[in-house]
Amino acid sequence: MIDSRDSQSIAAAKLYYEQGLGQSEVAAELGVSRPTVSKLLQAARDKGYVSITIHDPRERADEFIDGFVERWGLEEVRMVRPVRGSNADLLSELGRSGASLLEELVHDDMSVGISWGDTMYAVAEHLRPLSVRGVRVVQLKGGHSHSERSTHDIATLTRFARSFDAAVEALPLPVILDSKETKDLVVQDRHIAAVLQAGASTDMAVFTVGGVGRHSLLVNLGMLAPDEEKQIMAHAVGDVCSRFFTAEGEVASPEVDQRTVGISLADLKARPIRVLIAGGADKVEAIRVALTMGMAT
Q1: DSSP 3-state helix, strand, coil percentages of the chain (rounded to 5)?
Q2: Exposure of 180 by Cβ count < 10 A (0-12 exposed, 13-18 middle, 19+ buried)?
C-alpha cells in the first residue's frame, strides 16, 4: 500500500533522477523545503523505489581476473575494489557483486544450496526479487550458535528464499554437534537426511571461505573444545561450509569433521555450479587453497 508520503518520495525521485533537477528545484516543484527533499530521496532509496547501480568495468575484465581464470580453470571471476579499506565496505562490495552474479545465474526450477556467515548475509541483503519459478533454496550446513555470535543462518536463508520466491529446506541444528555418536544419530532422522541429500545434489552451491584466527566466526561459536581450537589454529588455514582444511587441502581435524552436519567437501566439489564469494587479507591463504582444491567454478 502506497501512502501520500510514498507518492511524494516517488515524485521527488523522478524529478531528481529522471529529469535531472537539483534538490532546490525539486523543492520548488513540490512546494516543500530542500531538507524535506533530501529526506524524500532517502526514503525512496530505503523503500526500493530507487536503485543505484555503478558498473565498474574492472570487476569483470583486467589482467588479474584473466590470471585467476587461467590459473584455476574458472568459468567466471569478478573482483571488487572497495574505495575504503574497512571490513564493512569490503562486505558490502562482496555482497553487491555476489548478488549481481546470482541474479544472472538463478533460473526456473533450480535448486540453490547456500551456506552462512557475514559474507553470505551481505549477499542476501543485496539480492533483489527475481521473476523465477520453482526455485528451491537448501541450507548446506547447520547453523545454530552456542555463543553470542550470530551465524545469520535463518536471516540469510529467508532473504534468499524471498528474493527467489523459493521453497526452503532448512537444517535447524548446530553445524558441529557435541559428539560423533550424536551426529550419527541425528543424520538418521528422515527430515535431516532429506535436507542433507538435497544439499548434496543441488544445481548450484553458493558459499564463502572462512579464515582461521582468534576472531574468525566459526572458532567463536562455542562448538569447539579448547584442545580442538588449538588443533584447528595449529593445522587449519580455513574452512568451506565448516569443513576445516590444511594448507595441503586435507581435513585439518578428522574428529571435528566427523561431528559436522552439512555437505561434505567431496559433494560440494561435485556441484555443477560453485559460486565462492570471499575476500580480505585474513582469507588470502584460505581462498588460495580452496581454489587449488577445485572448490569453485
Answers
A1: 50, 10, 40
A2: middle
- All cell numbers assigned to 27: 523543492
Asked if residue 209 lies in contact with residue 238, where contact means CB atoms within 8 angstroms, the answer is yes
Which distant-in-sequence residues (6+ apart) come within 8 Å of 32 by Cβ?
8, 40
The full DSSP string for 170-229 is ---SBSB-S-HHHHHHHTTSHHHHHHHHHHHT-SEEEE-EEE-STT-TGGGSS-S-HHHH
Q: What is the mean pLDDT of each run of 10 residues along the chain (297 residues)?
A: 85 89 92 92 85 69 82 92 85 93 95 95 91 96 70 89 94 90 94 96 97 68 76 90 94 92 96 97 94 96
Q: Which residues are registered as beta bridge partners of 176?
A: 260
**Number of C-beta neighbours around residue 37 at 10 A:** 26
Cα separation, 282 vs 77, in Å, equals 20
Closest CA to 23 of 3, 46, 6, 40: 40
